[in-house]
Amino acid sequence: MSTEKNKLTTSWGAPVGDNQNSITAGARGPTLIQDVHLLEKLAHFNRERVPERVVHAKGAGAHGYLEVTQDLTKYTKASLFAEVGKRTPLFVRFSTVAGENGSSDTVRDPRGFAVKFYTDEGNYDLVGNNTPVFFIRDAIKFPDFIHTQKRHPQTHLKNPNAVWDFWSLSPESLHQVTILMTDRGIPATLRHMHGFGSHTFKWVNSEGAGVWVKYHFKTEQGVKNLAPDVAAQLAADNPDYHTEDLFNAIKQGDFPAWKLCVQIMPLEDANTYRFDPFDVTKVWSQKDYPLIEVGRMVLDRNPENYFAEVEQATFSPGTLVPGIDVSPDKMLQGRLFAYGDAHRYRVGANHQALPINRPRSEVNTYQRDGQMRADDNGGSSVYYEPNSVGGPKESPENKIAPFEVSGSADSVGYDHHDHYTQPGDLYRLLSEDERSRLVQTIVGAMKPVESDEIKLRQIAHFYKADPEYGIRIAEGLGLSVPE
């Protein structure tokens, strides 16, 4: 006799008498449409997969916390940094960018590094990568860039012609391309890589004074990478290698940790720095703006259910809290809309109410209805504002700090067009062995490109970054550096 606790029920809570046989007209059927348990079971099964993410489709996640180790309240009033020793719970999702949900973990690709902090004043999402820069610096180019990373509409195969055509026509991509093609393009595990907020953000303190800030997560496990042949073998033998490694490490009590540091730039420096500090294809020199330790992030608990926690987790750089704001970074500005909109399409208008996304602080909004509204939908409380019945009101002390804007509205790019100094500096920092592997990787990636025009155009970018860089790529492809 089944107890109430383990009694199988339908989704509406009624006991199921037979879960092995459908209701039929006689032993041979046909099946009766009145078998509502069968119909509900099949209909739900057809809907078990939400649309996968357009980018960052495959990921792994874990719970943990951030512990503050240094007082930075002179820079920000954000509650998660309020005092040394404070712990804020968080959830992290790591991911590859271009591949589908069933793709391999060990491909050469940037890794998403998204952190959701469940703070006292609402959720704060820091949605970055394992690289400090990105391929493009204006969101208007993002759909085109991602199209080049996807499959050809006719062959349904990956298309190196599109990849290198786009990169060769977008010289701002050179810095990220160089990083991607170095040894760090294939992390050994998700635990052995750094993370970055990538964009420039703004911190505001309790007096309303602001600074520009960049985030760095420094792995305490050390940076380790995979050789391409090892990565390829793992892709064949265990395409879920990174997912498995993270889960097992936490399960065994080997909790991965990162030191969270920031670079701080005075607001006025943005007008005089040697390049635009809001350009996400550039890094700030750590000689100019040294790393300042903030805290320590530790991952110590695995998800109980992958779909509910990792797949349904939604992150957006627009999920902000008092004391943290955005910058004029054109790529970031576009992401403020695009990420939330993607979640509303993929998971639903009420995605923030799901357990993995729900803030630990109280939520008081006038938003009502919509698909998958799982709470009391505001009950009988007032549903408009302003109102005279005591509904939630804005708190003026949490208004954004004012900032100046100027100029004529126009479609304009960044003034700074030096796309070569930083990739060249990176190339020259590499050891000879690292340079040789970089050249070998790029040559191997470019050989399938059918057009010599595309190859030569890209070689010119490498050459402008460093002549040796361009010459070695050209020689590897059996071409000459163009005049």
TrEMBL record:
Biased composition (Polar residues): 8-24
Binding site for heme: 339
Catalytic machinery residues: 56, 129
PANTHER family: CATALASE
Protein name: Catalase
Residue span(s) of domain Catalase core: 9-393
GO-annotated cellular components: cytoplasm
SMART domains, alphabetized: Catalase
Pfam family, one: Catalase
Catalytic activity: 2 H2O2 = O2 + 2 H2O
Family, as annotated: Belongs to the catalase family.
Originating organism: Paenibacillus silvestris
GO biological process: hydrogen peroxide catabolic process; response to hydrogen peroxide
Any one GO MF annotation of this record: catalase activity
Superkingdom: Bacteria
Top class in the EC scheme: oxidoreductase
EC identifiers of the protein: 1.11.1.6
Region Disordered, annotated ranges: 1-25, 370-398
Names of required cofactors: heme
Keywords tagged on the record: Heme, Hydrogen peroxide, Iron, Metal-binding, Oxidoreductase, Peroxidase
